[in-house]
Amino acid sequence: MQPISQVEGSFVDVEGRYVIVVGRFNHHVVDSLVEGAVDILVRHGVDGENIDIVHVPGAWELPLAVKRVLKVARPDAVIALGAVIRGGTPHFEYVAGGCNAALGNLQLEFETPIANGVLTVNSIEQAIERSGTKAGNKGAEAAMAAMEMVSLLRCFDGDDGGEA
Protein backbone atom coordinates (compact mmCIF):
# COMPACT_ATOMS: atom_id res chain seq x y z
CA MET A 1 0.00 0.00 0.00
CA GLN A 2 1.24 3.46 -0.90
CA PRO A 3 1.82 5.97 1.89
CA ILE A 4 -1.39 7.72 2.78
CA SER A 5 -1.45 11.48 2.98
CA GLN A 6 -5.08 11.76 4.08
CA VAL A 7 -8.00 9.35 4.13
CA GLU A 8 -11.42 9.93 5.58
CA GLY A 9 -14.89 8.54 5.21
CA SER A 10 -17.79 10.38 3.67
CA PHE A 11 -21.54 10.16 3.94
CA VAL A 12 -22.01 9.25 0.29
CA ASP A 13 -20.72 5.65 0.06
CA VAL A 14 -22.75 4.34 3.01
CA GLU A 15 -24.89 1.64 1.45
CA GLY A 16 -24.84 -1.60 3.38
CA ARG A 17 -26.44 -3.50 6.18
CA TYR A 18 -26.78 -1.81 9.56
CA VAL A 19 -28.00 -3.46 12.73
CA ILE A 20 -29.16 -1.35 15.64
CA VAL A 21 -28.92 -3.24 18.92
CA VAL A 22 -30.92 -1.45 21.57
CA GLY A 23 -31.39 -1.91 25.30
CA ARG A 24 -35.03 -1.51 26.34
CA PHE A 25 -34.24 -0.34 29.88
CA ASN A 26 -35.02 3.39 30.07
CA HIS A 27 -37.04 2.95 26.87
CA HIS A 28 -38.63 6.38 27.28
CA VAL A 29 -35.19 7.79 26.41
CA VAL A 30 -33.86 5.01 24.18
CA ASP A 31 -36.84 5.01 21.81
CA SER A 32 -35.85 8.53 20.71
CA LEU A 33 -32.27 7.39 20.13
CA VAL A 34 -33.52 4.63 17.82
CA GLU A 35 -35.75 7.06 15.92
CA GLY A 36 -32.80 9.42 15.46
CA ALA A 37 -30.51 6.64 14.23
CA VAL A 38 -33.01 5.24 11.73
CA ASP A 39 -33.91 8.71 10.46
CA ILE A 40 -30.29 9.68 9.78
CA LEU A 41 -29.48 6.35 8.08
CA VAL A 42 -32.45 6.66 5.73
CA ARG A 43 -31.76 10.34 5.03
CA HIS A 44 -28.26 9.39 3.89
CA GLY A 45 -29.54 6.79 1.46
CA VAL A 46 -29.50 3.54 3.44
CA ASP A 47 -32.43 1.41 2.29
CA GLY A 48 -34.83 0.76 5.17
CA GLU A 49 -34.75 -2.94 4.29
CA ASN A 50 -31.05 -2.93 5.20
CA ILE A 51 -31.68 -1.70 8.73
CA ASP A 52 -32.45 -4.28 11.39
CA ILE A 53 -33.27 -3.57 15.03
CA VAL A 54 -32.52 -6.06 17.79
CA HIS A 55 -33.93 -5.43 21.28
CA VAL A 56 -32.25 -6.63 24.47
CA PRO A 57 -33.22 -6.03 28.12
CA GLY A 58 -30.61 -3.37 28.85
CA ALA A 59 -27.09 -2.06 28.33
CA TRP A 60 -25.48 -5.00 30.13
CA GLU A 61 -26.86 -7.39 27.50
CA LEU A 62 -25.77 -5.32 24.51
CA PRO A 63 -22.28 -6.84 24.04
CA LEU A 64 -23.50 -10.44 23.86
CA ALA A 65 -26.23 -9.57 21.35
CA VAL A 66 -23.79 -7.47 19.31
CA LYS A 67 -21.32 -10.36 19.22
CA ARG A 68 -23.99 -12.76 17.97
CA VAL A 69 -25.16 -10.24 15.36
CA LEU A 70 -21.59 -9.84 14.13
CA LYS A 71 -21.13 -13.62 13.87
CA VAL A 72 -24.46 -14.45 12.26
CA ALA A 73 -25.62 -11.39 10.30
CA ARG A 74 -22.17 -9.99 9.40
CA PRO A 75 -23.42 -6.41 8.98
CA ASP A 76 -21.35 -3.53 7.66
CA ALA A 77 -21.84 -1.75 11.00
CA VAL A 78 -23.62 -2.08 14.32
CA ILE A 79 -25.12 0.80 16.25
CA ALA A 80 -25.42 0.08 19.98
CA LEU A 81 -28.00 2.21 21.77
CA GLY A 82 -29.03 2.33 25.40
CA ALA A 83 -29.14 4.49 28.50
CA VAL A 84 -27.43 3.95 31.83
CA ILE A 85 -28.49 6.54 34.39
CA ARG A 86 -26.49 6.95 37.58
CA GLY A 87 -28.24 5.92 40.76
CA GLY A 88 -27.22 5.74 44.38
CA THR A 89 -25.14 2.55 44.07
CA PRO A 90 -21.99 1.52 42.17
CA HIS A 91 -24.16 -0.47 39.73
CA PHE A 92 -23.83 2.38 37.19
CA GLU A 93 -20.04 2.03 36.98
CA TYR A 94 -20.18 -1.73 36.49
CA VAL A 95 -22.84 -1.67 33.79
CA ALA A 96 -21.52 1.36 31.90
CA GLY A 97 -17.86 0.35 32.13
CA GLY A 98 -18.45 -3.29 31.26
CA CYS A 99 -20.68 -2.46 28.32
CA ASN A 100 -18.31 0.13 26.87
CA ALA A 101 -15.21 -2.02 27.24
CA ALA A 102 -16.88 -5.06 25.69
CA LEU A 103 -18.19 -3.10 22.71
CA GLY A 104 -14.72 -1.70 22.07
CA ASN A 105 -13.18 -5.16 22.21
CA LEU A 106 -15.79 -6.59 19.83
CA GLN A 107 -15.15 -3.83 17.31
CA LEU A 108 -11.49 -4.78 17.18
CA GLU A 109 -12.13 -8.53 17.24
CA PHE A 110 -14.56 -8.45 14.32
CA GLU A 111 -13.02 -5.48 12.47
CA THR A 112 -16.50 -4.07 12.07
CA PRO A 113 -17.59 -0.61 13.19
CA ILE A 114 -19.66 -0.56 16.37
CA ALA A 115 -20.97 2.92 17.00
CA ASN A 116 -21.45 3.40 20.72
CA GLY A 117 -24.62 5.36 21.37
CA VAL A 118 -25.05 4.16 24.94
CA LEU A 119 -25.79 7.17 27.12
CA THR A 120 -24.00 7.19 30.46
CA VAL A 121 -25.48 10.10 32.36
CA ASN A 122 -25.96 11.38 35.88
CA SER A 123 -29.68 12.14 35.64
CA ILE A 124 -32.83 11.52 33.67
CA GLU A 125 -32.70 15.18 32.62
CA GLN A 126 -29.30 14.66 31.00
CA ALA A 127 -30.60 11.55 29.24
CA ILE A 128 -33.57 13.45 27.83
CA GLU A 129 -31.30 16.28 26.66
CA ARG A 130 -29.12 13.80 24.75
CA SER A 131 -32.02 11.93 23.17
CA GLY A 132 -33.28 14.70 20.97
CA THR A 133 -33.61 17.96 22.84
CA LYS A 134 -30.94 20.47 23.91
CA ALA A 135 -27.87 18.29 23.37
CA GLY A 136 -28.95 16.76 20.06
CA ASN A 137 -29.73 13.11 19.47
CA LYS A 138 -26.88 10.77 20.34
CA GLY A 139 -28.58 7.97 18.38
CA ALA A 140 -28.34 10.06 15.23
CA GLU A 141 -24.72 10.90 16.05
CA ALA A 142 -23.91 7.20 16.50
CA ALA A 143 -25.50 6.44 13.11
CA MET A 144 -23.37 9.18 11.53
CA ALA A 145 -20.24 7.65 13.05
CA ALA A 146 -21.24 4.20 11.79
CA MET A 147 -21.77 5.46 8.24
CA GLU A 148 -18.50 7.38 8.22
CA MET A 149 -16.60 4.30 9.40
CA VAL A 150 -18.26 2.09 6.78
CA SER A 151 -17.17 4.57 4.12
CA LEU A 152 -13.68 4.91 5.59
CA LEU A 153 -13.04 1.17 5.75
CA ARG A 154 -14.09 0.87 2.11
CA CYS A 155 -11.12 3.08 1.26
CA PHE A 156 -8.92 0.14 2.22
CA ASP A 157 -10.86 -2.54 0.28
CA GLY A 158 -9.12 -4.00 -2.73
CA ASP A 159 -5.54 -3.17 -1.72
CA ASP A 160 -3.55 -6.06 -0.25
CA GLY A 161 -6.47 -8.06 1.12
CA GLY A 162 -7.47 -5.60 3.81
CA GLU A 163 -4.23 -5.75 5.76
CA ALA A 164 -3.08 -2.25 6.58
TrEMBL record:
Forms an icosahedral capsid composed of 60 subunits, arranged as a dodecamer of pentamers. It is an enzyme of class 2 (transferase). It comes from the Bacteria. The gene is ribE. This is 6,7-dimethyl-8-ribityllumazine synthase. 5-amino-6-(D-ribitylamino)uracil binds at F25, A59, W60, E61, A83, V84, I85, N116. Pathway: Cofactor biosynthesis; riboflavin biosynthesis; riboflavin from 2-hydroxy-3-oxobutyl phosphate and 5-amino-6-(D-ribitylamino)uracil: step 1/2. Gene3D superfamilies: Lumazine/riboflavin synthase. SUPFAM superfamilies: Lumazine synthase (SSF52121). Catalyzes the formation of 6,7-dimethyl-8-ribityllumazine by condensation of 5-amino-6-(D-ribitylamino)uracil with 3,4-dihydroxy-2-butanone 4-phosphate. This is the penultimate step in the biosynthesis of riboflavin. Its EC number is 2.5.1.78. It catalyses: (2S)-2-hydroxy-3-oxobutyl phosphate + 5-amino-6-(D-ribitylamino)uracil = 6,7-dimethyl-8-(1-D-ribityl)lumazine + phosphate + 2 H2O + H(+). HAMAP family: Lumazine_synth. (2S)-2-hydroxy-3-oxobutyl phosphate binds at G88, T89, R130. Coiled coil: none annotated. Keywords: Riboflavin biosynthesis, Transferase. Belongs to the DMRL synthase family. The active site is at H91 (proton donor). It holds the Pfam family DMRL_synthase. Transmembrane segments: none annotated. GO terms for molecular function: 6,7-dimethyl-8-ribityllumazine synthase activity. CDD domains: Lumazine_synthase-I. InterPro entries: LS (IPR034964), LS/RS (IPR002180), LS/RS_sf (IPR036467).
